[in-house]
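Problem: given the chain below (166 residues), write out its structure.
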Amino acid sequence: DALVVFFTDHGEAHWEHGDMGHAHGLFEPENRAVVAIAAPGLAPLWWDGPTSHRDIWPTIFDALALELDNEFSGVPLGQLPSDHTRYGIRHSGDPIMQFVERGGTKLMYWWSGERRLYLLGQDPGELEDVYNPADPDVQALWELLEEDIERVQALMPAYKPVDVGP
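Solution.
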């Protein structure tokens, strides 16, 4: 009659993009995590769509058939659409890095001005940068990312992003 929850906080880099360990970047090997929830009577579910750690508690509440408190901002696993937008930030190093990903298209931006775009469905290892500022997908992702950059910069006014935008 127990609910068992296992989750990892993040992945690890193993020289895929020139770094070993974690907290270096926002590439998938460092940001992917695992969650497993098991209980008697709980139907098996495999979810590899968009999600984040904030979805763990709503998933637990859902598994236990408990009412979800409004303090949680996530949703139970498997209930987000596949084109849900995800954001990420690494602020512990220089330069600050941010990404926005939607529908398997991931735009990465370093506050030093570097930009990259990866099509995760075709390139899950993020090995081929296909950034093109004229691409409509790039422009749409920039609209989302610029708002997030502004929110972060308001919290960290001493840091200035370089050349924001396509």
